[in-house]
Every structure is written in C-alpha cells, then in structure tokens.
Write a structure and sequence with these properties.
Blueprint lengths: L1 E11 L2 E12 L3 E5 L6 H8 L7 E6 L2 E2 L5 H7 E4 L11 H6 L14 H13 L15 H14 L4 E5 L7 H15 L4 E5 L3 H7 L2 E6 L2 E7 H4 L2 H8 L3 E8 L2 E8 L2
Parallel strand pairs: 3-8, 3-9, 6-7, 7-8
Antiparallel strand pairs: 1-2, 1-4, 4-5, 9-10, 11-12
Helix pairs in contact: 4-5, 5-6
C-alpha cells in the first residue's frame, strides 16, 4: 500500500503552514520528520490523518484520493499515536489495546473473541504480554508508550503516524521504543514519525523529511539528506556527523559543538 502526498499546501482555513509538500510512503518504510518547534510537523500529521483538508494539492491512499475514501475504511488504514497519553479514567492494559478495535466494531456491539485475540497478539508483538492485566496508569512512561503502540497495531492499519513517540522518556526507554519501531517495519507497516533527534533517524536507517520555515526543504534517505550543513541550517547550531563502526553495527551519530 502507498500513501502519496502530491504537491500539497497545508494549514488552517486561510493560514498556510506548510507549502509544496511531496512525499511517497510505502508499507515497510519508516519516514522521520525533523524540524524545529512550530514549523508544521503537527499540521502535516493532521493532514495525513484526514483531520485537515489540504489547502491545495491532494493526498492519495493506494492511488485513490483520501477525499473519496469512506471515513471508517480510511480510519482502518491509518493509525495515530499521539504525544500525550493522559487518560481521564484508568483501564487495564488489555482494554486500552482493545480500543484500537473501535473502528472495526459496530456502535452497539462489544469486542468479539477475534478482537480480543488480535489485542493479545498486538501485546505479544510489542513484547509486553506480561502487562496484560496491569492498570495503565501505574505503568512507566516507556511501558505506556509500548501499550499505545500495541493499540495502534490492534487497529490493523497499514500506516502508523507517531507524534514524537520518545518525548519525555528517559534515554533507555527512548532506545527501546526506537528498537520496536525498527521491528514494526518488518511487519510491513509504514511508519511516519516526528522526532527532534537526528540520531533517531540514523538509528532507524529511515527516510526523512526536513521541515523549515513552512516548507519541506528536502526529503530522501537519511544518509543522503542529513548533512552537517543541513543540520546547521535547520537548528542554527554547529553539528558534526561521525561514523561509528563496530563488527555488528555501523551508523552515523550527530555531535553538537558547544
């Protein structure tokens, strides 16, 4: 399945936030979105999710304009993992994950045995089956993020939009989340993820779209797009990129110069 953004301008009413965005995302891709606060990453995500209509241009899912998609069927194709997870009520983990089945269940029906099996399989994919009966509010930030990701998996979507999934997590939990995101790619999922860390992009060995001053300034594979000069321009700080080589691992790392 392919999600295609074709020369879109995005924003709110008469206010354009992003201009000239063109992007192709296939299932099995990870696409990271880099940019400073306020440059339009959230606007991009709301447009991808169909919450905001594009001001100009169009979005296509499997070569069909999202304007022509049935809203329920479209919701089954694209899942969203928000940045904040505060819950007004406290639920067991399995019930949190079952919420991902809402778009598959009739309004007045309860989750079926099949829905419960899918929820449990999603917990297993995220390696958190042991949390099944725990209360969501008692979990650590990293565990909560894994549960929310399992909920998106239960939706059985082809694409998952993640708004800064490592935000507010300690360093160890950030790495665990990045590892899980890399594994999701092996399940033929397309991941679109906002992050403030160029290192996360290198860890995911992903495509990247750089957003600056209301424009998607460049997109492509991280090895070609993320350069020292581009990061200096994007964040207005001096950064060098080094190559780390180990027998079983080789990747680039970003080092800010203070």
């Amino acid at each position: 399945m392919k999600l295609r953004v074709n020369n879109c301008s995005m924003g709110y009413y008469n206010k354009t936030v992003l201009r000239d965005v063109t992007l192709d995302i296939d299932t099995g891709d990870i696409v990271c979105v880099l940019g400073r606060n306020g440059t339009g990453k959230t606007t991009l995500f709301k447009t991808l999710l169909g919450i905001l209509p594009p001001i100009s241009g169009d979005l296509f899912l499997n070569e069909k304009s999202i304007k022509a998609w049935d809203r329920r069927k479209f919701a089954n194709c694209i899942a969203y993992i928000p940045q904040a997870h505060a819950m007004p009520f406290s639920y067991p983990v399995i019930e949190m994950v079952l919420m991902g089945r809402i778009s598959h269940v009739n309004m007045f029906s309860s989750p079926s045995k099949k829905d419960i099996i899918i929820a449990e399989e999603s917990l297993e994919k995220m390696n958190i089956s042991h949390l099944r009966d725990r209360n969501f509010s008692t979990l650590s930030g990293g565990e909560q993020q894994l549960v929310i990701t399992a909920r998106a998996l239960a939706q059985k979507a082809s694409f998952i939009v993640m708004d800064e999934p490592t935000s507010s997590l300690d360093f160890g939990n950030q790495i665990k989340i990045i590892k899980q995101i890399r594994e999701l790619r092996e399940h033929s999922l397309g991941i679109i993820m906002a992050t403030h860390s160029p290192d996360h992009v290198f860890m995911c060995d992903s495509k990247v779209i750089l957003v600056d001053s209301g424009t998607a300034v460049m997109s492509g594979h991280c090895d070609k797009v993320i350069t020292e000069s581009m990061l200096n321009r994007l964040y207005d700080i001096d950064i060098i990129i080094n190559q780390i080589k180990k027998p079983d691992n080789e990747r680039k790392v970003c080092i800010p110069l203070l």
